Amino acid sequence: MAIARSWDGSSYDRLSSPMEALGREVVARLELRGDETVLDAGCGSGRVTEALLERLPHGRVIGVDGSPSMIEAARERLGDRVDLRVADLVGLDLGEPVDAILSTATFHWIADHDALFRSLRANLRDGGRLVAQCGGKGNIARVHAAAAAAAEDARFARCLSGWRGPWNFAGPEETEARLLAAGFADARCWLEERPVTPPKPPQYLRTINLGAHLERLPDQLHQPFVEAVLERLGDPVTIDYVRLNIDADAGAAA
Predict the structure, then answer these.
(1) Which helix (H) or strand (E) segment is 174 a member of?
(2) Beta bridge partners of 244
(3) CA 236, CA 221: separation in Å to the nearest integer?
(4) Which residue of 34, 108, 237, 248 lies most exposed, with the fewest beta carbons within 10 A?
(5) Measured at the alpha carbon of residue 55, what is the angle toward residues 115 and 116, in degrees to the nearest 5?
(6) Taking a C-beta distance cutoff of 8 angstroms, is the pair 69, 6 a contact?
(7) How far is CA 238 from the centre of its chain?
(8) Is the dihedral of CA 217, 221, 227, 231 positive or negative?
(9) What's 9-138+166-195+242-249's CATH class?
């Protein structure tokens, strides 16, 4: 599975406080004794992984991300406290089943959710639990509308006209059905509006929200495109996040 976009792990780490805050709430939803082995599926630069580690004083965390740069940033933050691996979540083989899976701000970058959930279930022991959050239906619609309007400018249209992007913002009902079809015994999913006003909008948009757009543009058009999007978003800049929350149980062995 190809990575949907490239990432600069160190830049993401500096700017991802809003993602960390959302992620810590997801960590709090995961019931733990403290001695389990837990997979952080899409661990990024390790900020949320660190919060998960705090919940496992006698346990173990495996952090997986498809971006080598993200894993490098996570290693700088976490050292050898976490088993960090560069790998795709689709087709993942950890070599051992884990007790639980946590994921934050990752699944919407994966096109095939059916294959994703089958892969996660295969790495989760019977009786284990998946707790996750990602971009859901309607996520950053206002930001994407501003980007689409900016893309009509002749400077950007050659690279962006007709481009639909790599995102997969799914709804709760279809996600529940996919989880059950993938072998989970029970699944509950729901949407939640969580708008964010970043302290440094240009840097935040460039690194977090518009990276996939910028990869299609030559370097000299990156800043003009970000400015064109900012102009259309107005002041203050609010990122209209809609998060898809996922709670799923693997069920007991047959």
Answers:
(1) helix 172-181
(2) 134, 191
(3) 23
(4) 34
(5) 5
(6) yes
(7) 19
(8) negative
(9) alpha beta
Question: Sign of torsion, CA 136 137 142 146?
Answer: positive
**So where are the chain's domains?**
9-138+166-195+242-249
Supply the pLDDT for residue 16.
Answer: 59
- Alpha-carbon gap, residue 24 to 32, rounded angstroms: 14
Distances (CA, A) of 176 to 92, 109, 180, 218, 253: 21, 18, 6, 40, 20
pLDDT greater at residue 176 or residue 252: 176
Determine the Cα–Cα distance for residues 13 and 214; give it in Å rounded to an integer: 19
CA distances, 74 to each of 43, 69, 105, 159, 209 (Å): 8, 9, 16, 33, 20
Q: State the pLDDT confidence band at 19, using cuts at 50, 70 and 90.
A: confident
Burial string for 121-146 (b: 16+ CB within 10 Å, else e) reads bebbeeebbbbbbbbbeebbeebbeb
